[in-house]
């Protein structure tokens, strides 16, 4: 095993279809020769694209990175509903989408753009009375999940294809953490009266990390490209450079005076440019969220 601190950083993976996020983490553990590996934001097995993986001390960043905005390219099939809201489930109902016109489609998309209340799919990892919803749903239980506020900042239709009674809609979506693209497909179909489900999903962005930075697992096996933790923080969060005195303070878990930076996490760097911590301002002070130096 390598010392995980020597390899701390992010690996931006282009996840292949058919792999779980845990499968990818297991593969990166073998490549990095450390068990201290995690990921920010789960992708379903059907989905491909950007999966941010943290190694060593960078695992402390993952919970904060998971809260950043994400981008997706999706294909929604109108005209059929499934029990998982995607193509991996069983079709539970069909209704022709042949009469869905461009205006109706545009209105349906507009209604799902902005700040909305979204009910997560029954087959999801959300816990209900201590048990994952998908386990209850697969046991035949009708799982009632509460609607949650999410923000869909962009929902742009890029192509439309008609096949028999189906309407396949390609779209680019930017949304807040916790948004289910499967649920958008389901709700768009419901609003149009024909049902809908997700047939393809590719995540194009997690915060500042785009597909052009992502590497396939085969590419990573040949060259494990690790983005240094300091560079990762500088790319994802506002930066604050501090004096030697404040550096000593924050490394030991002390609060810094507020600097009017935020809201949200701020990367603190010492006089020599070394990443020291993530902090978050609260009132007149800045409280450490994670300390990386010392």
TrEMBL record:
Domain spans labelled tRNA pseudouridine synthase II TruB subfamily 2 C-terminal: 237-292
Reactions mediated catalytically: uridine(55) in tRNA = pseudouridine(55) in tRNA
Enzyme Commission number(s): 5.4.99.25
Keywords associated with the record: Isomerase, tRNA processing
Gene3D superfamilies, alphabetized: Pseudouridine synthase (3.30.2350.10), PUA domain (2.30.130.10)
Pseudouridine synthase II N-terminal domain location: 29-181
Gene Ontology MF annotations: RNA binding; tRNA pseudouridine(55) synthase activity
Active-site residues from the entry: 44 (nucleophile)
HAMAP family, alphabetized: TruB_bact (MF_01080)
Family, as annotated: Belongs to the pseudouridine synthase TruB family. Type 1 subfamily.
Function: Responsible for synthesis of pseudouridine from uracil-55 in the psi GC loop of transfer RNAs.
Protein name from the UniProt record: tRNA pseudouridine synthase B
Native organism taxonomy: Bacteria, Bacillati, Actinomycetota, Actinomycetes, Streptosporangiales
């Amino acid at each position: 095993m390598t010392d995980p601190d020597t390899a701390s950083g992010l690996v931006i993976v282009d996840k292949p279809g058919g792999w779980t996020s845990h499968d990818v983490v297991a593969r990166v553990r073998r490549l990095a020769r450390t068990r201290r590996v995690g990921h920010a934001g789960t992708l379903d097995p059907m989905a491909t694209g950007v999966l941010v993986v943290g190694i060593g001390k960078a695992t402390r960043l993952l919970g904060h990175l998971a809260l950043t905005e994400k981008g997706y390219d999706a294909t929604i099939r109108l005209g059929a509903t499934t029990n998982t809201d995607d193509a991996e489930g069983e079709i539970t109902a069909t209704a022709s989408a042949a009469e869905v016109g461009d205006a109706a489609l545009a209105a349906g998309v507009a209604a799902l753009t902005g700040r909305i209340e979204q009910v997560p799919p029954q087959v999801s990892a959300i816990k209900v009375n201590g048990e994952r919803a998908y386990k209850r749903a697969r046991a035949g239980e009708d799982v009632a999940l509460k609607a949650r506020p999410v923000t869909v900042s962009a929902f742009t239709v890029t192509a439309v294809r008609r096949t028999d009674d189906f309407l396949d809609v390609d779209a680019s979506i930017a949304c807040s953490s916790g948004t289910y693209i499967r649920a958008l497909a389901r709700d768009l179909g419901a609003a149009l009266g024909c049902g809908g489900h997700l047939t393809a999903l590719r995540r194009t962005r997690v915060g500042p990390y785009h597909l052009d930075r992502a590497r396939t697992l085969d590419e990573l096996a040949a060259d494990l490209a690790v983005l240094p933790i300091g560079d990762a923080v500088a790319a994802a969060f506002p930066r604050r450079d501090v004096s030697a005195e404040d550096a000593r303070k924050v490394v030991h878990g002390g609060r810094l005076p507020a600097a009017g930076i935020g809201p949200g996490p701020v990367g603190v760097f010492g006089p020599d440019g070394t990443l020291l911590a993530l902090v978050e301002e609260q009132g007149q002070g800045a409280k450490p969220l994670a300390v990386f130096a010392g």
